[in-house]
Amino acid sequence: MDRALALAALAGEAGDVPVGAVVTDDAGAVIGEGRNLRERDHDPTAHAEVVALRAAATALGSWNLEGCTLVVTLEPCVMCAGAVLQSRVSRLVFGAWDEKAGAAGSVYDVVRDRRLPYRAEVVAGLREGEASALLRTFFDARR
Questions:
Q1: One of 33, 39, 49, 75 is an active-site residue; which one?
Q2: How confident is the model at residue 109 (pLDDT cuts 50, 70, 90)?
């Protein structure tokens, strides 16, 4: 989570919503990382999770990330929750809850939906205060 928080801070400094993500392999080594790049890249899909999952898949030479963990500072949205399932990530760890658009337990629970063919373990609230503070500071400065 340290690296994800650092990436989130970089995203915020660059004018994007401060969200950072890392993917670790089953031994805990970082194999992919990302931060929100929507503003920089003019890409609506450039959420931190998607950027990190793409980097991890490239590093492994496979789209299948079974056994890997995605650590992200904010609860994933519906798009990112879908990417978690499509990549077969085994575990999702996140910091702050997203009470407006979260899809891993708050508004929706896509990641653990029993109707879908794949589910991921979810660990929520890791360093929630720090992740929430980054977001609060970012949005307070824009109001």
A1: 49
A2: very high
